[in-house]
Amino acid sequence: MAAPSEEDSLGALVAQASHHVSTLVRSEIELAKAELKFDAKRVGTAAGLFGVAAFMLHLCLILGSFAIAYGLVQLGMMPWLAFTIVTVFYLVVALLLAFVGYRRLKGLAGMKRTTRSLKSLKGVAKPEDEPALVASGMTPEPYRGPTAGQVGHHRVPVTTEIGSADLDPGHTSPRP
After folding, report:
1. Which residues cross the membrane (predicted)?
2. Gyration radius of the chain's alpha carbons
């Protein structure tokens, strides 16, 4: 049996490296999926616990409001007035929080940097001679190069059993 030539061993090494890289990438993707699933379960559990805690705090707020109102009644205030005072207090707090939230929203920048960046790219996207062509009645030549779906269309996945006959000299990708 003849010893493998340098091209055969190089082709085999390239095929093995390609196989190992694709296996590594697939393994990393599977690991990321497993970690994400585990993290998603933990986040879901934590969100449920926060929801239950918020509900219980809401109940405590209601019970505390009754306690304050009945405390005012015990101090000699009429019940309707005590409950009205507690209600007005909560309305004032809610209005103050809404006002602060409105002020914070009003101060938003409105993506000024992104807008400025896109305006600067407008000159790159449309060449300067294009308006002159349109004004003269001529239309610019349409792009006839390969589209994104056609780029790399001729390539075939590398297998582990590639010989020198499958490789074109000066070309590192296999041909069908």
Report:
1. 46-73, 79-102
2. 35
pLDDT tens digit sequence for 31-81: 888 888 888 889 999 999 999 999 999 999 999 999 999 999 999 999 999
Q: Rounded distance, CA 22 to CA 34, Å?
A: 18
| CB-CB contact of 140 with 125 (8 Å) | no
Cα dihedral 121/126/131/133 (nearest 10): 160
| Per-residue pLDDT tens over the stretch 102-112 | 998 887 777 77
Rounded-to-integer distance, Cα 58 and Cα 36, Å: 32
Distance of alpha carbon 67 from alpha carbon 51, whole angstroms: 24
State the pTM of this model.
0.44
State the Cα–Cα distance between residues 53 and 44, nearest whole angstrom. Answer: 14
